[in-house]
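User: Reviewer 2 asked us to show a designed sequence for the structure in our supplementary figure. I'm pasting the structure tokens here. Could you produce the per-position amino acids so we can include them in the response letter?
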């Protein structure tokens, strides 16, 4: 077989995400995956140390999820959700709601993390429109990332993702991230904004800002922020697209809180990396804000594959795995290994900071100059890891590991070893 046949054919017609094709390296053609491993068309093996953008916590080609999908496909592959329902959707709601904060009562289906956020922001804004109140703005953290559809993009704070669209988006005001030492500044800015009564919602990535480089902050300050919003009637939206389903060591990052958000956005690991699906969950109060004799007060939002039965079957199987003893042990083991590696590496002369939460490990390279998000240093690190058979996607000078829960100790140690080699080399 011709070497790199798929890679060469890819260049004819395919446009890849987050890619400047003029100077991009050829895209690696993956032909097989199993567990924490992937193989390219030439037979080279890679350890998927980021669970393919955080969606494959139970490993590639998971047989349990595959069997559930196959069974569903032979019964009911899809049916429109407008005017109809089906058992997988009903079962998924029944299984998921008890795992969420106690105030979450309703589920709205969409198809990816960005659309889950889009739904939440529309609900916050329309709730007050339905009441005849003018609250047209949203609060979000600096350097947040919530997706690439328009409202989600507006709530995101990584400027080069959004600068071409300024003036075409909803109004969002950003507040400082309450990282250690900045808590009071964040609380003060939020308090001043809330007094204006102009804001419908506050959206946040709970405890960890993923795309910003796994920036972490404490649950206690998030509890304070949520409490302040509740006092002023501003709805709180927990974007758990990345953190959900075990990443932080608990089922959801919100499980670390004493306060409860009004909405939650879930996707990525929801179906174990198999079928695109997302959920936005709501309190009864929010649902009731749309429950009216006036049809114009309904939520006129939908997706063709809303509540796809096959996706629901995959999500149900994924929940089985999440709650299994094997996966719980895997999460605990990875966390312990991360802490051990952190202890070994944190005093390296090239390490600026390290942080760990659940299965998330992040390390910041010490640099004399600042590094662009997709700059030369980041690209050098990325290519080094790829050459060594490790899939990691640094963010500027930050390298993070967020592996499948089934990764072996030996595979994870190899990831650490290669990171150590990068520290010595660069």
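Assistant: Here is a per-position design you can include in the supplement:
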């Amino acid at each position: 077989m011709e070497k790199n046949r798929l890679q060469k054919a890819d260049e004819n017609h395919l446009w890849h995400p987050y890619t400047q094709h003029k100077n991009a390296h050829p895209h690696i053609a993956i032909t097989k995956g199993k567990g924490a491993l992937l193989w390219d068309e030439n037979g080279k093996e890679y350890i998927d140390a980021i669970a393919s953008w955080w969606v494959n916590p139970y490993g590639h080609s998971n047989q349990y999820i595959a069997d559930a999908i196959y069974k569903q496909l032979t019964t009911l592959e899809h049916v429109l959700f407008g005017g109809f329902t089906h058992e997988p959707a009903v079962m998924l709601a029944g299984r998921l709601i008890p795992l969420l904060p106690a105030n979450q009562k309703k589920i709205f289906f969409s198809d990816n993390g960005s659309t889950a956020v889009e739904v939440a922001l529309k609900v916050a804004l329309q709730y007050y429109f339905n009441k005849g109140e003018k609250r047209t703005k949203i609060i979000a953290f600096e350097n947040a990332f919530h997706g690439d559809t328009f409202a989600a993009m507006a709530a995101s704070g990584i400027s080069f993702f959004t600068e071409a669209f300024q003036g075409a988006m909803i109004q969002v005001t950003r507040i400082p991230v309450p990282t250690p030492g900045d808590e009071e500044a964040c609380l003060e800015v939020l308090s001043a904004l809330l007094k204006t009564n102009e804001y419908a919602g506050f959206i946040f990535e709970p405890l960890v800002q993923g795309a910003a480089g796994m920036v972490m902050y404490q649950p206690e300050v998030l509890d304070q922020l949520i409490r302040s919003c509740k006092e002023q009637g501003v709805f709180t939206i927990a974007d758990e697209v990345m953190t959900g389903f075990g990443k932080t060591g608990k089922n959801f990052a919100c499980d670390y809180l004493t306060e409860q958000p009004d909405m939650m956005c879930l996707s990525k690991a929801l179906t174990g990396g198999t079928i695109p699906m997302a959920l936005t969950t709501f309190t009864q109060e929010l649902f009731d804000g749309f429950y009216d004799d006036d049809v114009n007060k309904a939520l006129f939002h939908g997706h063709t594959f809303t509540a796809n039965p096959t996706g629901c079957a995959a999500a149900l199987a994924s929940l089985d795995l999440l709650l299994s003893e094997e996966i719980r042990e895997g999460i605990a083991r990875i966390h312990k290994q991360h802490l051990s590696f952190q202890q070994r590496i944190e005093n390296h002369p090239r390490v600026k900071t390290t942080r760990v939460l659940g299965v998330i490990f992040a390390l910041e390279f010490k640099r004399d100059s600042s590094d662009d998000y997709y700059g030369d240093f980041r690209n050098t690190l990325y290519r080094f890891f790829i050459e060594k058979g490790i899939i990691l996607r640094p963010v500027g000078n930050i390298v993070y590991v967020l592996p499948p829960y089934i990764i072996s100790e030996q595979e994870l140690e190899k990831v650490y070893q290669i990171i150590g080699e990068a520290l010595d080399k660069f």
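For the response letter, you might also mention the following. The mean pLDDT is 96. Residues 362 and 400 are 4 Å apart (CA to CA).
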